[in-house]
Amino acid sequence: MSKQEPGYITAAEMAGRQREISVAEFFLKNRHLLGFDSQAKALLTTVKEAVDNALDACEEAGILPDIRVRVVELDQHIYRVAVEDNGPGILENQIARIFGKLLYGSKFHKLAQSRGQQGMGISAAGMYAQLTTGKSLHVTSRVKGERTATELYVSVDTTRNRPRMHGKKRIKWDRPHGTLIEAEMEGRYQKGAHSIEMYLKQTALANPHARFRFDGPHGEAIAWRRKTRDLPPPPVEIKPHPRGVELGRLIQMLNATTSRNLLKFLQSEFSRVGPKTAREIIATAGRNLSERSLPKRIAHAQANALYRAIRKVPVSAPRTDCLVPIGETRLLEGMKKEIDADFRIVRTRPPAVYRGNPFQVEVGIAWARPGGVGLAVDKKGHITKAARRKRDNAGAIALQADEPAQLLRFANRVPLMYEQGGCAITHAVLQTNWKHYGLKQPKGALPLAPMAIIVHLASVWVPFTSEAKEAIAEYPEIEKELKLGLQECARRLAEQLQRETRLQHEYDKRSHIETYLPHVGIALQEILRLSDKQRDRAVRKLDDTLHKTRKIQ
Amino acid sequence: MSKQEPGYITAAEMAGRQREISVAEFFLKNRHLLGFDSQAKALLTTVKEAVDNALDACEEAGILPDIRVRVVELDQHIYRVAVEDNGPGILENQIARIFGKLLYGSKFHKLAQSRGQQGMGISAAGMYAQLTTGKSLHVTSRVKGERTATELYVSVDTTRNRPRMHGKKRIKWDRPHGTLIEAEMEGRYQKGAHSIEMYLKQTALANPHARFRFDGPHGEAIAWRRKTRDLPPPPVEIKPHPRGVELGRLIQMLNATTSRNLLKFLQSEFSRVGPKTAREIIATAGRNLSERSLPKRIAHAQANALYRAIRKVPVSAPRTDCLVPIGETRLLEGMKKEIDADFRIVRTRPPAVYRGNPFQVEVGIAWARPGGVGLAVDKKGHITKAARRKRDNAGAIALQADEPAQLLRFANRVPLMYEQGGCAITHAVLQTNWKHYGLKQPKGALPLAPMAIIVHLASVWVPFTSEAKEAIAEYPEIEKELKLGLQECARRLAEQLQRETRLQHEYDKRSHIETYLPHVGIALQEILRLSDKQRDRAVRKLDDTLHKTRKIQ
Q1: Which residues on B lie below 8 Å from A109 (Cβ)?
Q2: B66-75 and B78-85 as β-strands: parallel, antiparallel, unpaired?
Q3: H-only helix segments in B321-385
Q4: How far apart are the first and last CA of chain B?
Q5: Across the interface, do A21 and B131 touch by the CB < 8 Å criterion?
Q6: What Cα–Cα distance (Å) separates residue B285 from each residue in B252, B288, B290?
Q7: pLDDT digit string (tens) for A132-169?
Q8: Which residues in chain A are contacts of B19 at CB distance < 8 A?
Q9: Which of A136, B487, B494, B510 is such that its CA lies 20 to 30 A from the CA of B319?
Q10: Hey, how many other C-beta atoms are within 10 angstroms of the C-beta on A331?
Q11: What ipTM describes this predicted complex?
Q12: Do B466 and A466 make contact, defined as CB atoms within 8 angstroms?
């Protein structure tokens, strides 16, 4: 081996430095990837991960969610965050791993719509708490039907990504079932667009079947009521669609299957493949493949032929009953409650597919008439002086004329609070030509209007741009659906605004004429020497005629 | 246990679905996080990861890098990517893990400037190749000093994140040392801003000590020569600075240390802590802590006191000799070769610190005078008609007037090719008021100028916004340094441009006068009845005076 200069090292020395990196260490050092890059974000991310899990658990168990969030300031920049749900509870032997191990969960390996999908978020919150205050996560959980609850402290052993647990005991708990998580961490409590309050408000908007209560560190006590008692249907798990599979994955599936022959393999491992389609795929593949070929024995070249056959043979589009959109009615209810607006437009698009994954887009627009006009139109088109909107919901999102529209983004009913600029939803909104629909829009910016745009993407697998799940990646199929949804709503908005403008003009003209009608009557009376009664009749007749010819439809 | 409705599940059923997720499965499903979201990006990311590793290995071993990249089209959308280096080679028993296991490497656990830091990139490339074509990564490596090379095929067993290897043998290889990686994968070969060629061009710019050769699928054969034989000094590893440590991490370090007392612990585990500072920290902490306290026995409240003391007691700023910037001279050389410009401004800022991590910013500006002017100024300020720029380097980056400036971003000498919008460097450039320096700049956009802006961040730990390492996260300390570096260069650019404008005016005026001087001479001759000799002397005198009064400094 050649002589080395000082400071430089040999291949053997280099080898000695190679080491395994635990996934927990990795995310501890890169905690910004999971949403723990600042004190303010850490508090919100913790609440978000806990609430996501709580909603998922309640819905999977068929329970109407009842969620309570408390944030207490313990010291300067030190907070206790507590999230409590009425879910089915967690089995004692699962608690440690669920909260003390990254990449452990029930949602990663299945194709079904859920809020969580990685099995990382809540453990990462615990890890961050541990890192900043040295305190373990405190978990209390009572399983539905059990008489006592389990209480324990858990942290992540980061060098091995394993849970470390202490103080486990069974306790009495006055809740019949549910889970309470408490974490002490460095944080910064903030108001505004990235606040816990705003997150809960938007979560309530997208989850009208859930009830939330928030107690903040400055005495805030806010409740969001349930707007419906209908639970969304339980999420249905689907199998992958053959068109979404890659060659390497197909080879892996062939090796791992328990199916005894190729015909059964194709039918049981994929959705939308019946015996007829399976036979056609096998016949198209050729290469000595038959219905009775043993999956594990299929060679690389044969697998490749099978892969190409799958792309050639027509297969029905993926099942879409696995998707649970919010739905137009409920989205409307949510918007009415959480956004202070005059009218709303909603649209749930039909399901579509990207890379074999079903997804569905929903768009809502809420519009507030500029305060001064005071005009409102009822369903029959009659002009009424608008009763001042009831401001009973003082915390509602307010919309301002000549300000950029407020964009609320959601994925699987979870509000996306950060990374607006890097999200497919934002891009679709920016690329929509709002001028075409009569709105002001600076180049490359959000339209300027007293408007909120709500966009929801539901999918069995949401392609997020990072583990922090704050923005959706740009798949062409998703972008297309987003744009179609936005355009539909924008068109209906433009119609409504045009109609209102026309009505306003009519109203202005008519009141103008109405003002002068008595004077016309007096002039007629003088010219034609009418009696007062005749004059009044003439005025009434003129008024009637005006109403008929200018009838507002 | 209460009766469940169909579709809903109990806590026990939920528990049965909980499973561990292998980190390889996680990144396979989320491969866009590692830069494998599209066929075009997959090719580039593979080259990038292999070249990063090659450069790191060469530099660590004190070898001038000599790197060859080949891309061959095997079938429609199927490519073979080969990257070969002259590095020190990899020990046979390490090859499988380095290429067949995610989160395995030598760079994660130390604080030292390197291109790689995660131990994931190249294994992910292999995983993507396996997924899309079913083919394992082919690795050939010869360790410096050994007589034969090792050849083997390796893939990632994704369900367990372990390497799977086959076909290992010792072979003759005509290279004295180095590593060759070959991967077959789905891909799309593209030209332009996100091409392999552009990546190599920029890599050559930031690594003037390295030589590159690229053979593309369409017969491209491009070489980038070495511009210097001086290797950058070997990266120095540092210990964490006490100010960058969090409470939880401090507790972890107290538990894991081999130091027998607190005094030794503080000195040996942190940089910049000598006996005096250590004693002061211990005294400030109080709480019964002494120099001889056993680190493993320190209670939570004591650790907290220690943590607060560390923040109070003055500690020298972190060491910065661990940083290896490109340097002004070399950056200038690289820019001269790779960017077709008329003049260049470079600035290496002094080192700074974010979260205890030293970092350093370098900025370069290359400016091309619009073709028509043809004015150039040498060091003495004399006006010369500019010799037409030699266009010998036909592949150089060309700059256009009235086009947005070209922004080239680098982190630890690696060009960042994607996610420009989400990068701290871009934000710093956009927030710089270029109008103030005489340039056109649309609101919120890059300045419009025939200019390239090069920004390099060197750090012992670059905070990337995602595992794909395409953008730098926004830390206030980093943003500040970026802005200062940009402002300095912009100021010098403005001076240079003002000077050129002034010179151009002088030049225009003078040549104007010079044109009329002979006519003035003739007029004087007629009025004063001068001889031809007297007339010529008068003209010369006038010319001299003009040159003196209008002297260009």
Answers
A1: 19, 21
A2: antiparallel
A3: 328-338
A4: 93
A5: no
A6: 18, 8, 9
A7: 998 999 999 999 899 999 999 999 998 899 999 999 99
A8: 104-106, 108-109
A9: B487
A10: 24
A11: 0.81
A12: yes
